[in-house]
Amino acid sequence: MPGRSTNPEDYQHVPRPVAAMPKDFPSGHTIRPHRHARAQLVYAVTGVMRVTTEKGAWIVPPQRAVWMPAGMQHEIRMSGRVAMRTLYIEPAVAPASLDDCTVLEVAPLLRALILRAVEEPVDYDERGSAGLVMALILEELRRVTRVPLRIPLPADARLAALCRALLDDPAATATLDGWAERVGASARTLARLFQRETGMGFTQWRQQVRLAEAVSRLARGEPVALVSEHLGYASASAFTAMFRRALGATPRHYLARGIDARA
């Protein structure tokens, strides 16, 4: 794909409903808060992304994608080297059901279509095979499965400080009483704020953060036993049981779906 632009702005106003951009990033790279005129499907062939908006954070493991509605400000942080393939989609043709940021499963057909899309010219022939590829992408997006890897973020400044600290250190073991001393609010106030602003209790919210961190670490090849120990679980079996309840599969089988998609 020599000569293809890696500047997202070059894809916002092309006279095509779907525009595809390939771009690779080193581990630790952060794309600062920004927004686009078009909706985005951001797909990681390899590597893990953490996408953050003012409403929440989403962990995007390999072979999954994140949907970003048009105009929504977001930040993306890379964990491991990330091979990103982004589709910029005109809001008028975007699936109506995808009205918020969400992580999506990428089935083998959709993966193949995304990889084909980035090989087509930006000004592809809409009446030729490329036009059919883009139309099929839009059809596949209407039937994708969502992945429950959202971490809601609060608006309250005291709670937001706590939440961002836990996002940066999911293994932190401080209790709500301990956090209350740090942010200048009572534990009762924080508990009430957690429920009101995130729809979760503190323990449930922290488990969601740890689940997302686990997915990220497992995707980078860390053993289940090491991940469970790092995140404070009593045993690998306890961690695996939590993982299965949340994502419907054991860590090995969940990640194998991504490996199979690469085959």
Structure description:
The protein is 40% helix and 24% strand. With 263 residues, the chain is an alpha+beta fold. Strands 1, 2, 3, 4, 5, 6, 7, 8 and 9 form a 9-stranded antiparallel β-sheet that branches. A hairpin with a 3-residue loop joins strand 3 and strand 4 (56-60). The chain is globular.
Order of helices and strands: EEEEEEEHHEEHHHHHHH
| Terminus-to-terminus distance | 22 Å
* Broad structural category: alpha+beta
Percent in strands: 15-25%
Give the radius of gyration.
19 Å
- Name the average pLDDT: 90
Reported for the largest beta sheet, the result is: 9 strands, antiparallel
Helical amount among residues, as a percent range? 25-40%
Low-confidence stretches: 259-263
Apparent shape: globular
**Total number of β-strand segments?**
9
Helix count from the secondary structure assignment: 9
